[in-house]
Design goal:
Two copies of one chain form a homodimer. By secondary structure, chain A is α/β, with parallel strands linked by helices. The first copy, chain A, contains twelve helices and nine strands.
């Protein structure tokens, strides 16, 4: 981008959980807009966001707050986005810029098509590759996105000015912005994020249903704790992601299941050479992954925090 | 234990990788024995251990070193234990105390039966629940076991004095000692450690075999890095564990595969209630696991580091 970065007059963040609260805080700390208003359907949550200084104002009515917003950031679970888009259609300015933070992007475009008939030029779906297994307004913090990537999936008719504003928003929040097609986003994130979360949830469930599961968990050490950390993530958010990115997630589960069946056969056959090959190949691939992380020009990939 | 803790005159550590080197260093730092000798079939490794101050002496010949050892700690990959036991039978004192650190314990008892005809009273199989995805003598450190658990799986004929010496060794190294039956150890560790490692190896392999895998890894964030950290573990060690704990590992893989198939069906059916139930149940179980960690009297479980 050349020239001064765009700034917004009034930003409305809808949904003040971990991500929404953190977006608000980051933009407020970065001086991105004249005013950052927060709205949550749980008003106590908006009040708490105001008390914590994450927002300049806490809106009691979504429709009223939408009326004066120049940029709306929708930060609710993936399947709640459509309902907010309905409110945007009813109450927002015609030239409003709309973005979101959902972990599945195809479903957001489908929702927008249903709500608006055609995709609005002001719509710029987005997804910050950052998070935590903690959730809620209390976990929000202004530096959550610093050094992370934000993926935007503009559609063919997205207005350049809208895209520029949302890009500027994420840069202000400290993220590196990448654009890609929504389907590509959903396929990649199903593999790198949604599948690992599903595997971690599954492992913890499988173990907790064993006889003497307390005994089992007692002998689990650091490897297990790190491996299952993401199983402490918010169940509602992940229910929505699994439903919203259903097809890509099913494909990712199938890729994994096939791969696990292959490894199981090598164990069953006591095939030492095959097992060594599988483990060495994974060892090598993860080494290359770490090198890519280090070499990445964007500071994004090198920092910690979850993807979702 | 009452009375002064047993001490050893001369301890021989066979295999100077991460675990063997760390055992030697911990015992040396703790003043456990008159002399800590190290032996590795790669003599350069023994020399390096000596240079790093992990051992008092580096043996060039295993048979010679065995001749004067009072306690032998076998720290080689699981399937290499039997070969060392053969050397012990040939060259060690009749009253030598023998322990090991392998991640599978049934296989060590089987090896000992084959080598000695009957299980020697001096044999105390063991397994410290600590480690790292790093390996080799350079990664060894004397505090690796501090605050961790060491599981011992004595057999019916293990001499009390032998058990007491090995217990004292781990306490000197900073670990909390628990005894259990070898089969129980193998079943538990298959679930809490061997299965998660296999899943992590499988995930990294599955992703690296996708088209545009570099692109895929680029968008993997902190959740993925933590989840796959254990896939950087040593391939030879894990090949041996998979072979050595074959039956328990196959059972653990099957438990997981069934559980994943159930979750897949809920995704395929877009069954929101079932998915929320699964994720909430895992969320809750991991919360209880973290509480157990905190509440555990033994400092062991609360500290970091991998199990293997």
């Amino acid at each position: 981008m050349s020239g001064p970065a765009p700034r917004a007059g009034r930003v409305l963040v809808v949904g003040l959980g971990l991500i929404g609260g953190s977006v608000a805080a980051a933009l407020r700390e970065g001086g991105f807009a004249g005013e950052i208003t927060g709205y949550d359907q749980d008003h106590a949550c908006s009040v708490r966001a105001l008390q914590r200084g994450l927002v300049d104002a806490a809106a009691a009515s979504l429709d009223e707050a939408l009326g004066s917003a120049e940029l709306v950031v929708i930060a609710v679970p993936a399947l709640g986005v459509e309902q907010v888009l309905v409110a945007v259609r009813e109450s927002a300015r015609a030239d409003v810029v709309i973005t979101d933070v959902a972990s599945a992007k195809g479903v957001v475009l489908e929702s927008a098509r249903r709500v608006f008939g055609a995709l609005p030029p002001g719509l710029v779906p987005g997804h910050p590759i950052a998070g935590s297994e903690r959730s809620g307004v209390e976990a929000a913090r202004g530096d959550l996105f610093r050094g992370h990537r934000a993926i935007l999936t503009p559609h063919a008719g997205t207005a350049p000015a809208a895209l520029a504003l949302v890009e500027a928003m994420w840069i202000c929040a400290g993220a590196a912005v990448t654009c890609m097609e929504a389907g590509e986003h959903d396929r990649i994130l199903a593999l790198t994020s949604h599948l690992p979360h599903v595997l971690a949830f599954t492992l913890v469930n499988a173990l907790s249903q064993q006889d003497s599961s307390e005994q089992i968990f007692r002998y689990a050490a650091g490897g297990f704790r790190d491996f299952t950390r993401i199983a402490s993530s918010d169940p509602v958010m992940w229910r929505d992601i699994a439903l919203a990115n259903r097809d890509s997630l099913l494909a990712a589960i199938d890729v994994f299941t096939d791969s696990l069946a292959g490894l199981r056969a090598s164990v069953a056959n006591s095939d030492a050479a095959a097992l060594h090959g599988l483990f060495a190949s994974a060892h090598g691939a993860r080494g290359r992954y770490l090198q890519w992380l280090e070499a990445a020009q964007a500071p994004a990939a090198a920092s910690s925090g979850d993807d979702a």
